[in-house]
Prior knowledge:
Chain A is α+β, with helices and mostly antiparallel strands. Helix content of chain A is 49%, strand content 9%.
Amino acid sequence: MIAVAANVYFDLTRAFNARGPIVALASGQAVVHYRVAIMSKDGDWVIHETADACGRVLEILGDRDAVYRPGAPLDPRWLSGGWSSHFEYADEKGRRIRCDFFSRPPRVAQQAIDRLFAAADDPLLVVDLESLIRMKQTQRAKDYAVIGELAARLPPEQEALLTTDADRLLKLAPVIHGTTRRPALEAAAIGDRDAVVVELAREQDRLRRRDRMRLDAYAAAAQPYLQAFARLPAGERQLPQAHRRVLELADRHLPAHVSLPEEA
Amino acid sequence: MQMLSDDDLNLGELSDEELAQAWDLWFDLAQATNDADPPYTHGVFQAVGVVPSIEQPGDSSGSETINAEGRT
């Protein structure tokens, strides 16, 4: 019998959610799910911020002999502070599987996350397009091309607020009613293409700098913890026993909440 | 203006099985670049300059460094 190829991250999502929705596939694999691109090697999930959800994910990763990578404990105390948890294992083919979790995706309203889990009706739960686009508003320039393609799948009113495509904005502006605070859309409304391009560039630069400042703040706060993590022997990074050890380290060295700088 | 290539956008015409097969094949090939990948592509540790490796914890020679290219 020939094995049917599958996306290991889609299968993991179904396994995590087999007893009820606790994670939603995000970032690169969500982009694969929406058929915008295929090149994503890692799995990233928004996890329901509960001890039960964390325990279930740790159990499933433990069954796969996963190890903790340097990162916060998968625990609501740190997740609620915006931290992320990172794991890795080798699948049956020896391929590297990396699994990342966070419960407070940047730039996404808590109500959107609550709605996502409340409305879940499929174990392959994937974040909605608007939330995915907001998660993609990162420091990385390449994410903004993906945003343009994702936004094209939204209704016109939403697309006009999120697209990074100047031509689409110029087409959408005449049919969008009501006011907006988006300078690029205002420029599109008067048909000034140069101004649209400039305002889109300014918007992206602002978003990229804001994301970079946020990550820099977390990096600075994580330094003592990461130094302590570096001294953990490899065997102590293996699930399931690693979780208790990582919790102890974080309790001593990782602040649950980080003061973020003013928006750029 | 189309922002991604035809090869990317043709994914929309694939069945679920074809998409999984295409990704699985690509993922096999992509293992070749594992050592060159940045330690983090998502989450709040992306701006950390050096993180301890899994293989050689505590040994700075086994650390992964994120350079400027790896952050973009």
